[in-house]
Amino acid sequence: MMRISACKLSILMLVSALGYAPALLAQTVEDDPDVYVQEPCTPEESRLPQETYSTEWAEVVYVSGGIGYCESQEMQRIAREYPLELMFVRKARASEQFLASIPVTIKDGKGNLVLETVTQGPILLVKLPAGKYVATGEYNGVVKTHRLAVTQKYQRVAFVWSVEN
């Protein structure tokens, strides 16, 4: 099992989500005797249920999660199967943390609700038909909004809440 400080884990998860984890992990393992190599994840540890949200305007398939090493690796593995990845981050002066339990809504270009959920982790992967959308997320009473043009090409959008330390 990996033993790692909370700060290093946060950094590893962030760079892993951005696609840089293998180099950083290798460097960290070599440079820090307190870090041990992660054992392979079991199917149960990597399981992320795909969900469907249906309205009269759309049927949207999504996966939410990314908590812990195994889930984050699975999210990274399947991300390209979804045209939209939303990531939720709390940024303070001295640190960054991934966020879970974020209420999210996505509306189409006509204002119709096509997805409403609460995230199960810091990453939400969504299969949407090509088109224009507005995605909102809320953390500590602060709502962030992103206008999106979704194609079938993968894109990642980060919701970042800056807070004072």
- Beta-strand percent range: 35-45%
Question: What's the number of helices?
Answer: 4
Terminus-to-terminus distance: 31 Å
Q: What proportion of the residues is helical, as a percent range?
A: 10-25%
Any idea what the CATH architecture of the largest domain is? Answer: Sandwich
Characterization of this structure:
By secondary structure, this protein is α+β, with helices and mostly antiparallel strands. It has 2 domains: 1-39, no CATH class; 41-162, Sandwich (Immunoglobulin-like), CATH 2.60.40. The protein is 23% helix and 39% strand. The chain has helices at 6-17, 21-31, 43-46, 68-78, and strands spanning 51-54, 59-65, 84-91, 96-98, 103-108, 113-118, 123-127, 131-139, 142-150, 155-162. Strands 1, 2, 3, 4, 7 and 10 form a 6-stranded mixed β-sheet that branches. Strand 8 (131-139) and strand 9 (142-150) form a beta hairpin. Helix 1 (6-17) packs antiparallel against helix 2. Mean pLDDT is 84; it is low at 1-12 and 14-29.
List keywords for this structure.
165 residues, 6-stranded mixed beta sheet, 4-stranded antiparallel beta sheet, Immunoglobulin-like, alpha+beta, 39% strand, disordered N terminus
SSE layout and pairings?
Blueprint lengths: L5 H12 L3 H11 L11 H4 L4 E4 L4 E7 L2 H11 L5 E8 L4 E3 L4 E6 L4 E6 L4 E5 L3 E9 L2 E9 L4 E8 L3
Parallel strand pairs: 3-10
Antiparallel strand pairs: 1-2, 2-7, 3-4, 3-7, 5-6, 5-8, 8-9
